[in-house]
Write a structure and sequence with these properties.
The protein is α/β, with parallel strands linked by helices. Helices cover 41% and strands 21% of the residues. It has a nine-stranded mixed sheet with strand order 7-8-6-5-4-3-2-1-9, sandwiched between helices. The chain is globular and about 55 Å long.
Length: 391
């Protein structure tokens, strides 16, 4: 029995896989009907295992306050199909009336009628995979839409009544200049989003883009350039009214932070449905097969499609707590760390903290340890240093 607060649903279908993407996806759209049947079955099988499926009254207040449909390209599903998925969640779980319900959409896959219909299903937040407003950059990334299609999609979403719109952007493609990246961000700001996710291009092993680089197709941006673009991103968006509340995420004030993603950074329990999705109950992490046919077959036989699970050790929890919290603006609450791990953070990591503070990469203020902007450019190395002392 777990007090889950969030649900993630992985919709794995794409028209074409992007060159940089290493998320599990499928281009066999004919499998969508069978997938949706299996998804409904998985939701039904997991619900009795969770405290949030208890009778709605009498009892505690609703517990599910974020539902996120990601992918893949969830907007390849019809409005009716997305509506049915959300209705199944509402039927099986207690969902808060003011839950944040997010759907990822890709420009070029939706029109005005679709977005109006989506609003009618209860979706109240969109995450639009713009990535860039530069057609050459979009082509390099293997996106299926153009800059003009992205602008039209954002406008249509606003007309449909969506107030909470997040735009995804990518920076650090080979040859990208500081001026070009500023232009991209400015075009994003011109659309007046409530949230921006700005991701550094990462060449994940096994992706077409990584293979192309290995074959000499291009020279990736160097670490100095990436660090410069990262700091520019933070400074530019902060100057334009955004709060840099997580390493890759910016919001117009706390109210527009991604409630769903914040649950991950808080290490709150969450449920994941769909092939490749992860779940975490506060102690055990499990994940589904990244194979849609296996996923469908298991659920057709009334078996959960769980590939494996692990029980986190206290050391693993501590390392994850530090890694996730240092990604955020607030950093580590020293009192919370003591409550979780029964250790004083400053004593446990005295030597490492002395080095970080001495290099002016972070601060301890108001009972918190957090990295400053310079420190966050070295986030991976700092997290590895903490992990080396723990694991």
């Amino acid at each position: 029995m777990c007090n889950f607060t969030s649900i993630y649903i992985h919709i794995p279908f794409c028209l074409r896989k992007c060159a940089y993407c290493d998320f599990y996806s499928e281009t066999r759209l004919a499998l969508i009907p069978d997938f949706l049947k299996a998804l409904e079955q998985e939701i039904g099988l997991r619900a009795p295992l969770c405290s949030s499926s208890a009778p709605p009254s009498p009892g505690p207040a609703p517990v599910i306050d974020t539902v996120y449909l990601g992918g893949g390209t969830p907007s390849l599903q019809s409005v009716g199909q997305i509506g049915q998925v959300l209705q199944t969640v509402r039927d099986k779980f207690r969902v808060s009336p003011d839950a944040e319900i997010t759907v990822e959409i890709n420009p070029g896959t939706v029109d005005s009628d679709y977005l109006t219909g989506l609003k009618g299903t209860g979706v109240n937040r969109l995450s639009i995979g713009v990535q860039s407003f530069d057609d050459a950059k979009l082509a390099f990334l293997g996106r299926i839409h153009t800059a003009k299609e992205a602008e039209k999609t954002i406008g249509r979403a606003e007309t449909a009544g969506f107030k909470n719109i997040s735009l995804d952007l990518i920076y650090g493609v080979p040859g990208e200049t500081r001026a070009a990246w500023i232009r991209d961000m400015k075009k994003a700001l011109d659309r007046n989003p409530s949230h921006i996710s700005a991701y550094m291009l990462t060449l994940e092993p096994g992706t077409p883009l990584a293979d192309r680089m290995k074959q000499g197709g291009f020279i990736p941006a160097g670490s100095e350039m990436m660090s410069l673009l990262f700091k520019m991103t933070s400074q530019y968006l902060t100057q334009n009214g955004f709060e840099h509340y997580e390493i890759s995420n910016f919001s117009r004030g706390r109210v527009n932070r991604s409630r769903h993603n914040s649950r991950y950074w808080d290490l709150s329990p969450y449920l994941g449905f769909g092939p490749g999705a992860h779940s975490y109950d506060g102690a055990v992490r499990s994940w589904n097969y990244k194979n849609i046919q296996r996923y469908i077959a298991d659920l057709s036989a009334c078996r959960l499609p769980v590939e494996d699970r692990e029980t986190l050790t206290p050391e693993q929890k501590m390392a994850e707590f530090i890694m996730l919290r240092l990604r955020t603006l607030e950093g580590i609450d020293l009192g919370e760390f003591r409550d979780w791990f029964h250790l004083p953070f400053t004593k446990r990591f005295e030597t490492l903290l002395s080095r970080i503070l001495g290099q002016d990469l972070g601060n301890i203020e108001d009972g918190r340890f957090f990295l400053n902007l310079e420190g966050r450019t070295f986030l991976n190395g700092i997290v590895e240093a903490f992990s080396a002392e723990i694991l």
